DNA sequence: CGTCTTTGACCCGCGC
DNA sequence: GCGCGGGTCAAAGACG
């Protein structure tokens, strides 16, 4: 797995098809899920990767996060976020960045923990969380949040 | 010796 | 208020 989360960022699903080099394929479209459960706070669109295709990251969306109630009257904090599922035995996928784990929590209604990582490059605000799919442990759900302020590795 | 994991405590918003 | 759920901190240890 090697891609940069700064690449191919778009703001909506419709913008996605206008990205140069991006092609909507049937299997991708069928794979889009609208996850709106308690697992993820916001409604997040993510592609489901077919086995053997995890090496090719074709496109993604940005989730415009709702203004966090934590932000209280302040300026609305906009955070880019996207997630995807990957069929994988291991959850430590090398995506070209260096991550430092800073938390682990059990998810409600699931036996699987969720892991919290932060990009270990100084000043870089990017976080990701990794958890195993509740109803199909063969899949790993990775959620990226933020944009790297540097090149990978 | 610096960096990363581990893990319980802590914080905060929300619903009851 | 209080408890719960999701997210984060930080002290201590592991590891190279």
TrEMBL record:
GO (cellular component) term, any one: nucleus
Q: Which Gene3D superfamilies match?
A: WRKY domain
- Domain WRKY: residue ranges: 88-153
Q: Supply the SUPFAM superfamilies for this chain.
A: WRKY DNA-binding domain
MF-aspect GO terms: DNA-binding transcription factor activity; sequence-specific DNA binding
Give a yes or no for keyword Transcription in this entry: yes
This protein's record includes keyword Transcription regulation: yes
Q: Which UniProt keywords apply?
A: DNA-binding, Nucleus, Transcription, Transcription regulation
Q: Subcellular localization, per the record?
A: Nucleus
Q: Which PANTHER family match?
A: WRKY TRANSCRIPTION FACTOR 50-RELATED, WRKY TRANSCRIPTION FACTOR PROTEIN 1-RELATED
Q: What is this protein called?
A: WRKY transcription factor 50 isoform X1
Per the UniProt record, the source organism is: Cucumis melo var. makuwa (Oriental melon)
Taxonomic lineage is: Eukaryota, Viridiplantae, Streptophyta, Embryophyta, Tracheophyta
């Amino acid at each position: 797995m090697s891609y940069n989360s700064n690449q191919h960022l778009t703001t909506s699903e419709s913008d996605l098809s206008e990205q140069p080099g991006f092609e909507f394929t049937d299997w991708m479209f069928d794979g889009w899920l609208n996850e709106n459960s308690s697992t993820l706070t916001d409604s997040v669109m993510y592609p489901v990767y077919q086995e053997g295709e995890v090496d090719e990251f074709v496109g993604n969306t940005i989730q415009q996060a709702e203004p966090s109630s934590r932000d209280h009257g302040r300026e609305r904090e906009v955070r880019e976020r996207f997630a995807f599922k990957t069929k994988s035995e291991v959850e430590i996928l090398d995506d070209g960045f260096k991550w430092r784990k800073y938390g682990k929590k059990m998810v409600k209604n699931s036996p699987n923990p969720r892991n919290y990582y932060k990009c270990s490059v100084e000043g870089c605000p990017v976080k990701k969380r990794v958890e195993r799919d509740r109803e199909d442990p063969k899949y790993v759900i990775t959620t990226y949040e933020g944009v790297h302020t540097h090149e990978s590795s």
